[in-house]
Amino acid sequence: MTELGEGQFWGYRRADGSVGVRNHVLILPTITCATQAAKQITELVSGTVSFIHQHGCAQVGVDYEQTFRTYAGMGLNPNVYGVVVLGLGCETHQARSVAGEIAKSGKPVEVVSIQDHGGTLYTIAEGAKIAARMVQEASMLRREPCHIGELIVGTECGGSDACSGLSANPAVGVVSDKIVDGGGTSILAETTELIGAEHLLARRAVNDHVAKRVYEVIQAMESRALMMGIDIRTGNPSPGNIKGGLSSLEEKSLGASNKAGSRPLKELIDYAERPTERGLVWMDTPGHDIEQLTGMVAGGSQVVLFTTGRGTPTGSPIAPVIKISTNTPIFEKMNDNIDFNAGTVIDGTESIEAVGDRLYEEMLQVCSGKLTKAEVLKQHDFGIWRIGPTF
Amino acid sequence: MDRATEGYKLVMIKPQDHVAVALMSIPAGTELAFSCQDSRFEVTLLEPIEFGHKFAVRDIAQGEDILKYGEVIGAALCGISKGAHVHVHNLEGKRGRGDQV
Question: Residue limits of the SAF domain (chain B) (predicted)?
Answer without folding.
Answer: 17-92
